[in-house]
Amino acid sequence: MQIFGLNDELRASWLRFTVAGIIGIALAGLAVFRAFGFTDAIWFVGTSLVGWGVLMFDLALHLGLMVNLESGELQQSLGWPNRLTELRGLAAVWVAWGAHWASGGAYLPLVLVFGLAAFTDLLDGWLARRRHASTRWGRLYDPFMDGLFFSVAAISLAVIGILPQWLAALVTLRYAFPIVGGITFLLIRRRTLRVRHTPWGRASSAGIALTVFAAAAAAALGLPFHVIAPLFYLAVGITALGAFVTILIKGIEQI
């Protein structure tokens, strides 16, 4: 594991973040216990700890990617942009739970988790640029965590009938496509694709985020989302198509 061969400061930063996550999960579990009972609290804490454990183990394996893109030096800490990206991965577990509770009429957890997690997608990039803290790890994992979170959110809302199933499939395909393409490129060319954010990719993520949040909020407030839903679905479809075409063009350019 790369964590054993790196500097003490970066290892300590990883350990503090791991412990803080466990404490946060425990506190959230207490809130779930008070709101939804013992059984849900146990399953919530259990699934959250498993998800957090997988995320932190993977992070430990790839701490060597915490190289600043501007200086080319290994960072001394994880940095807040990368921490927020990891938290969005954990939020994929929590948004699924939020959808579960929403199916019973409790929409507040779903709206809060989705809203906060979607906000981190904006905040981590802004912080990375402002603090000149963009890393190789962030460049690779930020789009992956976006895909994980938004795909789980869309599928969860489709399961409880808030979003159509075809839209959940489109969202999942939109994020799985570049991942599968990147793996295929690695197997064929023996090197990784250069990952870059594109205007179409940002527009697609924004369209998906707004659509999922609007659908969840409308359900929570009892508003007729179906009246304006076609406009949201059209925006998601157009921007997803633009993202697909851009990914294909960028991939072909690197062959």
Give a summary of the structure in a few sentences.
The chain has 255 residues and is mainly alpha-helical.
Q: Could you walk me through the main structural features you see in this protein, from its secondary elements to its overall organization?
A:
With 255 residues, the chain is mainly alpha-helical. The protein has one domain: Four Helix Bundle (Hemerythrin (Met), subunit A). It has helices spanning 8-36, 38-61, 80-102, 108-130, 136-159, 165-189, 199-221, 229-253. Helix 3 packs parallel to helix 5, helix 4 (108-130) runs antiparallel to helix 7 and helix 5 (136-159) runs parallel beside helix 7. It is globular, with a radius of gyration of 19 Å. The relative contact order is 0.09.
Enumerate the spans where pLDDT stays under 50 for 5 or more consecutive residues.
Answer: none
Order of helices and strands: HHHHHHHH
What's the average pLDDT?
A: 89
- Taking all Cα atoms into account, the compactness measure Rg is 19 Å
DSSP strand count: 0
Distance between the termini: 31 Å
Write the CATH architecture name: Up-down Bundle
In DSSP terms, counting alpha (H) and pi (I) runs of 4 or more, how many helices? 8
The major β-sheet equals: none
Which percent bin holds the helix content? Answer: over 70%
What fraction of residues sit in β-strands?
A: under 5%
CATH topology: Four Helix Bundle (Hemerythrin (Met), subunit A)
**Overall 3D form:** globular
